[in-house]
Amino acid sequence: AAVIAVAAIVLAIIFVLPLVLKTDYSIYIREGAVYYSHLSEEDKPVKLTANLYKDDESTLSLEDLSVLMEEEISFCQIGKTLFYPEKMDSETFSYTLNYQRPEEEESETVKIDADVYSYETNLIGSYVAYIRGSNRNLYLFQTKTGESTKIDSNITDYHISTLGNKIIYHNEEGDLYRYDGSESSRISRDVSSIEHISKSGKD
């Protein structure tokens, strides 16, 4: 197993959000820890997690790690909420999903769930749809209540609405469903994949 032990790895995850944060920021990895920084020596970086990897070492190459982190780190501009992984398993690619609002003075890490394989947030980061476990269970998490609701299992694809109150998802049997916040209803059978959903269809 190759141990990633470099002084600092700055991934290609530099975001410019002038309309919201009015500053540039970056997310970088240093000695297995993930930091959020304003790219200024005057501001102390925020340590998001000290445990990026599940174990002390990782078999991921720097290239694979960079791609994976780009896919699994999300900053919701309006809600100023940063979603990110920790305790990543280099064999299964599962991780613990957290969120934090790093612009707040008393910002704290909030754990959403463990054994997560993918996730998608709504526009302001108030809802999070995610896949958990080997059965690929689909859950919906609300940051306001801190609660997760299981929706279905054996999911292959899913998309959360802009408001977060609806989810379109596809399962291994080829069924396409729409979850409206309380229950799921089947839209179609024998669907190969979800190719596109209009904004109005997701709201």
Q: Can you offer a commentary on this structure?
A:
This protein is mostly beta strands. The protein is built from two helices and 15 strands. It has helices spanning 62-72, 199-202; strands at 9-16, 24-30, 33-37, 46-49, 74-76, 81-86, 95-100, 110-121, 127-132, 137-142, 147-152, 155-160, 167-171, 176-179, 184-188. The strands form three sheets. It has a seven-stranded antiparallel β-sheet. It has a four-stranded antiparallel β-sheet with strand order 1-2-3-4, covered by helices on one side.
In short:
The protein has a 7-stranded antiparallel sheet. By secondary structure, it is mostly beta strands. 7% of the residues lie in helices and 44% in strands.
- Averaged pLDDT: 82
What spatial order of strands do you see in the largest sheet?
5-6-7-8-9-10-11
Low-pLDDT stretches: 1-22
Measured distance between first and last alpha carbons: 45 Å
What summary fits the major beta sheet? 7 strands, antiparallel
Q: Please estimate the helix content.
A: under 10%
Q: What letter string, H or E per element, gives the SSE order?
A: EEEEHEEEEEEEEEEEH
Q: How many helices?
A: 2
Overall structural class, as computed from helix and strand content, comes to mainly beta
% residues in beta strands = 35-45%
Give me the Rg, rounded.
18 Å
3D shape: globular
Can you count the beta strands?
15
